[in-house]
Design goal:
It comes from Megamonas hypermegale. InterPro entries: LysR_HTH_N, LysR_subst-bd, WH-like_DNA-bd_sf, WH_DNA-bd_sf. Belongs to the LysR transcriptional regulatory family. GO terms for molecular function: DNA-binding transcription factor activity; transcription cis-regulatory region binding. The strands form three sheets. Strands 3, 4, 5, 6, 9, 10 and 11 form a seven-stranded mixed sheet that branches. A two-stranded antiparallel ribbon has the order 1-2. The chain folds into three domains: 81 residues, Arc Repressor Mutant, subunit A; 106 residues, Periplasmic binding protein-like II (D-Maltodextrin-Binding Protein, domain 2); 101 residues, Periplasmic binding protein-like II (D-Maltodextrin-Binding Protein, domain 2), CATH 3.40.190.10. It contains twelve helices and eleven strands. The model has no long low-confidence stretch (mean pLDDT 90). 45% of the residues lie in helices and 21% in strands. The radius of gyration is 31 Å and the shape is elongated. The chain is α/β, with parallel strands linked by helices.
Length: 298
């Protein structure tokens, strides 16, 4: 039962005329007739008597009139309630790459919580395949990837940024700031992220294409711990620039320069069929603001 048909019924009942109702609703008379006929078919009753160009409610029509008014009134009340629903309530589920969660995202979460303390946030970290599983099965509202640039008809991309990935070492390391071939690094002590991390996978694929291999003495999912160990000159690592920007600026870590350039993309996405809630929009805006104008967070 469509609301527009109920609305047409009320107009016809009030005007006792199909033609007058059509004028007020800006419909053709045939449209009004079709809508009333559809309603009568759904209810399996005759709502109007049509005799010699007169229109009069039947007894069943009179009875149905109060229900139609109630349904329309309830619909309008629901619209007003939902429109005025406070943004400060609800839940937001975000899935992202671990490197993003451990670096700048805590600052965004802190700002979001300051603005909307009553919104519950659930944060998942995983590899790209798992992130997309959550996206496709509606287990996450927003997904923040760190991988090759993703194109898909299933997703809406609201922010993306290219990131370079470097070999890095402590400023005390003998190769810090030096120009090397990637082959020269293979014998060094390596501390790497786990194999399901996107940039680690890209490195492995490239090395395999050259019949080369790195055997790290430590594999770890936590980028913050890796950075700390590399700073202590425990070995070399391979990390995205955004995760080590502060350490590079303070020269606690330094790049090892090689001819090859490795790049990944950070992309903030959601499923094309996802309803964008108010809390989703706020989070999207905060992430964009952080990316393009970090001063507002200082």
């Amino acid at each position: 039962m469509e609301l527009r048909n109920l609305k047409t019924f009320l107009y016809v009942a009030e005007q006792c005329s199909f033609s007058k109702a059509a004028i007020l609703l800006n419909y053709s008379q045939s449209t009004v007739t079709a809508q009333i006929q559809k309603l009568e078919e759904e209810l399996d009753i005759l709502l109007f008597e049509r005799i010699n160009k007169t229109v009069r409610l039947t007894n069943a029509g009179q009875e149905f009139l109060k229900y139609a008014h109630e349904i329309i009134r309830t619909s309008e009340d629901a619209k007003k309630t939902l429109k005025n629903l406070p943004i400060e309530t609800g839940e937001l589920r975000i899935a992202m790459a671990e490197s993003i969660a451990n670096t700048f995202f805590p600052e965004i979460l802190e700002r979001f919580h300051q603005l909307y303390p009553k919104i519950k946030i659930t944060l998942y970290t995983a590899g790209t395949d798992s992130l997309f599983y959550k996206l496709r099965h509606n287990e996450a509202d927003l997904v923040y990837t760190l991988d090759k640039r993703i194109y898909s008809s299933e997703i809406v991309t609201v922010m993306e940024k290219k990131e370079e990935v470097f070999f890095v070492a402590s400023s005390k390391h003998r190769l810090a700031g030096k120009n090397c071939l990637i082959e020269d690094l293979l014998g060094e002590d390596f501390l790497l992220t786990e194999k399901d991390m996107s940039y680690r996978s890209h490195l492995e694929e490239y090395l395999a294409s050259k019949s080369l291999e790195i055997n790290p003495f430590l594999e770890l999912g936590n980028v913050e711990i890796l950075k700390s160990l590399v700073e202590k000159n425990a070995g070399i690592s391979f990390l995205p620039e955004f995760t080590i920007k502060k350490q590079l600026e303070e020269q606690r870590l330094m790049k090892i320069n090689i001819p090859e350039v490795f790049k990944v993309w950070r992309q903030l996405i959601y499923h094309k069929h996802k309803w964008v809630t108010a809390s989703m929009k706020v989070m999207i805006d905060l992430i964009r603001d952080y990316e393009y104008d970090k001063k507002i967070f200082s």
